[in-house]
Structure formats: structure tokens, C-alpha cells
Amino acid sequence: MARIDTLLIANRGEIARRIIRTGRQLGLTTVAVYSDIDADAPHVREADLAMRLGPAPARDSYLNMEAVLAAARDSGADAIHPGYGFLSENAAFAEACADAGLIFVGPAPDSIRLMGDKAAARQRMADSGVPVLPGFDQEDADDATLKAEAERVGLPLLIKAVAGGGGKGMRAVQHAAEFDEALAAARREARNAFGDDRVLLERYLPSARHVEVQVFADQHGNTVHLFERDCSVQRRHQKIIEEAPAPGLSEQQRHDLGQAAVRAARAIDYRGAGTVEFLFSPEGEFFFMEMNTRLQVEHPVTELITGEDLVAWQLAVAEGRPLPKAQQELQVHGAAMEVRLYAENPYQQFLPSSGPLTHLRWPSEVRVDAGVEAGDIVSDYYDPMLAKLIAHGDDRDQARRRLVRALDQLALSGPHHNGAFLRRVLCDPAFADADLDTRLLEHRPHLLQAEPEDPALLAVAAAALLAGTPPDSGDDPWTALNAWRPLGRRRTLVPLRVDEHPLTVVLDDDRASVADHTAPWTLHRHDDRFDLHWGEHRLSGHALFSFDDRRLTVFVHGQNYQIETHPARESERAGGAGDFRAPMSGTIVTCHVAAGDPVDAGAAVITLEAMKMEHTLRASAPGTVRDFLVKAGDSVSEGTLLVDFETEEE
Ligand code: MV4
Question: Which keywords describe this protein according to UniProt (predicted)?
Fold first, then answer.
């Protein structure tokens, strides 16, 4: 039996930290690897040793097999855990590990290769009695053969890339006339993505759930399943919410699904952790879709319902030990649900968002598997997933409601993120009713629409929070508010800027006005939490004061809002020469002049790089750079003041 003393984790982010956690619990020496921009990343801080791989691009670092193998050799590792993504499903890498005398924590290279070939996988499953949809999976078939077979398969059908997965190179055909064009498109996409344009055909099941089964096998002939997960809620083939067990299955269906998955694993003599994905029809039929030969992102929901540590299971199998439990010793306890928090911009088609995490506090009452901590910089080199929030409950609805609360507690500013979107989906009536379908978001496009809070309500909350700050808190700038007491009542004018909206709140002891709307207000505070009532409106959340830059960040329902408490006058701001603020999160590249220098209108003053683009800020009027508030190399968040600039006296 092999022994693992030193484990190298060939990954980054939350999964590297997850594996390090179990490695340390088991008393192993853990070795992190990192690219240049990850030199101070959390996974590096937490491992016993850390080895540099190379420059930031993944192909030069986390995908660089030679560099990973050299790091393993130099650190004395006896095993490599690949995590997910990167080299985790690379058969050549698994082979190279074996050749170097290292244990690859994963299945045999042949299993990876077989399941990577979707046609071969489908054939093997069909031959082994695992249900598959009607289809045609003869490899290397030419266009004419495919077209003839398409009639036999029947419409609607899907054309899928043999080398595919994750929806790339996949095309639906609803009408026979569309077939030729769809085939050409699928082949083209597959050739570009995988360098392989072979395709297979399959009857299209348009309305179905994605239900997958966690399987495990050891080297002693034991194969078990750890029940199923429903991962139907996806956006562009990116999973967003996962849960276990899959809701609404009968005991018979759950049993049959588990048996089919175990059969699939046995059919390929599988070893280690794997996931068998099925399409689950509204009639309760299920069909093999693909098998993932790695630990998955969503494994924590299975851990929470079974009480097992799947990384520990993987390491047991890798050492040649038997599976920790037999099938009859495994049970489902309650329900678990996970949401994936991504650094992406819901206001801009969910494009990845990067930059420093200026403020971050994770919710405390759910499991958080995070890749980042406060102060870290989210780069655009890697997957934009920031963290997974995972809740357990006695039943599905309890887990769901705990996640909603967790998103309410989330305080994250810096990059844009999808927290509010996740909360909307969790609260959607169809989702709450477990009416699941892979097209849930297509059917409910309003969920993708950002629904920012009313700026007037946010402004009243901000004004009330400021007014509620005790006046005896030293040099508290809030006491500088413009206050006077006509007729013995305290009336305060609070000029604010809520994101892009300049607003003035007129606040007195019991009424608040914004523009022409006046209503009574009450505010309850508890630590940083607040609950505001303004007429029939209500806003609950928490607030973070930043005294130095006179900003208030309000976190509401997974979304954050920046409120400037002493905003510059609009006349100064609009194109004002004095407004050198970062237009987006990025890194300072160059300061073009020295502090104290006079500059002409149009002169370049400072350049920052964001999303791989450079942005130069120029003086719009002649003036003097009194000081730079940042230097080259600094990371800055959107809206940060960069330059102290004085416009020339007229
Ligand atoms: C399907 C299907 C319907 N019928 N196959 C999506 C990615 C790849 N894993 C296979 N996929 C699908 N295969 C047949 N015969 C629908 C999908 C599919 C899907 C599956 C799971 C979760 C989300 C999805 C979104 C679109 C399409």
C-alpha cells in the first residue's frame, strides 16, 4: 500500500484551500504551487510549502505539466492532487505522474481518456445497460452518414462534439432543413475549441433536469454512490446553484439512479471520485449524459448531506486503502444547497470583473469555501469564481432560506459580483417550489435583470445612518452636517451621491424628504445592521463607514451601493479637471508628471490598466498636480481618487 506523506496541490483558489484543509487534518505536509500573480494568494499562505510555477497565464503555470512535475520533485511530494479544471482531466498528465513515480489523486489515465471521448463513453454506457437517449455515436462518420442517421434518431436532436462537454460544439436541430447548417456550425466550433471536429447525434430532450450522482471506487472492487445532486440552474453552461439530494425523486428513482451510476463506474473499472451526469425527464426517466472524472466544484453539498469528507476519501483511495464506508452505511441527512459567487458584472452581460477586494466579510452561519480574502486582488487570468456558500438544513427550504440570509450578510465590495442575482433566483417562486429545469433562467429572463434599490430610499437610509451616529464620537465627520433647528426641531440637509445619483435628503426627527416625496422614517440599528422604514418603503441591510474617503457602503440583499457623504458639486465633477478617479478597478501603470508640476489642458496625468486595457486620464483644464495619491503598481478600485489636482485660477 502506497503512503502519502507530502501532497502537492496542482491548483489555486478555493479548491486548493479545500484540499490543503483536509491534507493538514490528516497530518500530511501540503505543498502549494503558484503563478507570479498568486505569490501571496491564500492557498500559498496556508500550505506548508509553496513552489513557483511561472508567469500568470495558466498555460505557463497551472497548466504547465513540466513545471508542476518539477515542483513535485523539488518539494519531495509523493502525490499530486489536481483539484478540478487545469490538469485534472488530462490523461497525459496522469500518465506523466505515474512515470515520475508520483501518485495522481484521480482515476487511471484510460478512464479519463475514455470519458473524454463522448462517443466512446456513450457506447460503453449503452453496452453496459446504462440508459442513453436514442442516438448515433459511430466515430468518424461523414456528413452524409450523419444526415441519414439523423432521420432515424428523430427530431428534435442535438449534435454534440465528441471531444466536447460543457456545451461547446453543441447544436440543436428542430427541423430537418436546419441540419446541414447546424452540423457545419457544430463541427466548426468543435474544431476551434478542441482541434477535433467529430460529432455524435442524440435525441434532444428539451425539458429536463441535470441530476448527477457522486460515485467512488477503490482498488479492491468496491464501488458506491453518495447520492445525487441537482445542478439544473445554469447560465450558459455555468452552474449557479446546486443541491443535494435532488428534490422530488421517489425512493425508487433515487435508488435506480444510484444503481445506474455505480453500473457506469463499474463498466469502466473506475477508481477514485467521479460524477455521472444524467438528464432527468419530467416523466422521471433518466439518461446518461457524461461522466466527470474528477472531484467537482459542487462536492460540498454531498459532504453536508452525508457527513463525509470527499477529499479524505480520495486520499484513502489514492493510497490503496478501501473506501471508508460501504453503501449501506451511507445515508442522506437533511438537504444542502450551494450558490457560486462569481466576480462578474450583472449590469454588463455578466462579464468577468476584477480588481482589489476593498471590503470583504463572509457570512458566518453557512459553510464558505472561498478562494479569496479581504485585500486580495481578483485577477482576470483565472476562473472568476470567488467562493461557494453552502447551507445545510433539515429540509430543502430551510437550506434555501439559510442561503438567502447568508447573501444578506455578505459584505463584498471591489469587483462586481452576482450575489444579488443568486438571491433573486433563490427567492424565485418556481425555484423555491423545486420546479427545476435546465431552462429555468431562459423561462424567467427577469431574474437576469439587475434590480437596484431605489436611490432615494438608499439616500434616506444613508442620511438616517449618519444622523444616528452619536455626536460624541470624537472627530467624527458626521457632526459636521449642516444642521439647524427652526422652531425647535432639528432639520438636517444631507447632500449625498448614491452611485451616480446626486440627491439631497431633508431629514428631521420624524420625517424625511427626497425631491418631492416626504414620509415618516424610523431606523433601527444593531451593530452594523440597520432596518429603515420610510413611509411604506423598507430597507434592511448593513452599512460600512469609511471615514477617510467619506464614503458609506451599504450592503442590501447581496448587492452593495457606494454613497458619497460629501459629494463634490456637480459643476466640479462633470468633466471637472479636478476629478481624477479610477473609472474602473485596475492597476496604476504610469504617473506622467511629477507632483508639483503644472500641466496644460489635455495633458496625460495618469494611466491605469483594467481588463487588459490602458486608460489614460487627462487634465481637462490647465492646472497643477499637487500630489499623486497612488503610485505605479498600486491596485485601485473603481472610484478611487488618484490625483490631488488644482485647477488654475481664472
Ligand atoms: C443534452 C440536452 C438535452 N438532450 N442532451 C449540455 C452540456 C452537455 N453536458 C450536454 N448538455 C445537454 N445535453 C440531450 N440529448 C441538454 C443539455 C443541456 C444542459 C444540460 C445540463 C444542464 C444545462 C444544460 C443547458 C443546455 C443544454
Answer: ATP-binding, Biotin, Ligase, Nucleotide-binding
Question: Which atom number of ligand 1 is nearest to the Cα of residue 277?
Answer: 9
Instruction: Map residue 494 onto helix, strand or coil.
Output: strand
CATH of residue 51: 3.40.50.20
Alpha carbon of 167 to ligand 1 centroid (Å): 7
Q: CA-to-CA distance for 312 and 613, rounded, in angstroms? A: 43
Q: Provide the CA 94 distance to its chain's centre, in angstroms.
A: 27
Q: For the purposes of burial, counting CB atoms within 10 Å of the CB of 620, is it exposed (0-12), middle (13-18) or buried (19 or more)?
A: middle
Pocket test for ligand 1, best of 212, 277, 289, 436 (most atoms within 8 A of CB): 289
Q: Which of 155, 158, 212, 288 to mutate to test ligand 1, by most ligand atoms within 8 A of the CB atom?
A: 158
pLDDT band at 495 (very low <50, low <70, confident <90, very high): confident
Residue ranges of E strands in 463-550: 482-484, 491-498, 501-508, 511-514, 517-526, 529-534, 537-546
Cα–Cα dist 63/638, whole Å = 31
Residue type, 522: T
Q: What is the pLDDT of residues 196-247, one digit of tens each?
A: 999 999 999 999 999 999 999 999 999 999 999 999 999 999 999 999 999 9
Beta carbons of 390 and 415 less than 8 angstroms apart: no
Number of folded domains that form the chain: 6
Q: Tens digits of per-residue pLDDT, 248-258?
A: 999 999 999 99
> Which residue's alpha carbon is at the smallest distance from atom 12 of ligand 1?
167
pTM: 0.86
**Residue positions annotated with a catalytic role:** 294
Residues framing ligand 1 (Cβ under 6 A) = 133, 158, 165-167, 202-205, 208, 210, 234, 237, 279, 289-290, 438
Q: How many CB atoms lie within 10 A of CB 394?
A: 10
Three-state DSSP string of 365-420:
CCEEEECCCCCCEECCCCCCEEEEEEEEECCHHHHHHHHHHHHHHCEEECCCCCHH
CATH number for the domain harbouring residue 199: 3.30.1490.20
Its domain, for residue 155, covers 134-203
pLDDT at 626: 87
What are residue 636's DSSP bridge partners?
A: 586
Q: The domain spanning residue 575 has which CATH number?
A: 2.40.50.100
Question: Would you call the peptide bond into 520 cis, given omega within 30 degrees of 0 as the criterion?
Answer: no
Q: Whose CA is nearest to atom 7 of ligand 1?
A: 167
Give CA–CA dist 285/375, Å, rounded: 48
Kindly tell me if the per-residue pLDDT of 577 is higher than 70. Answer: no
Amino acid of residue 159: I
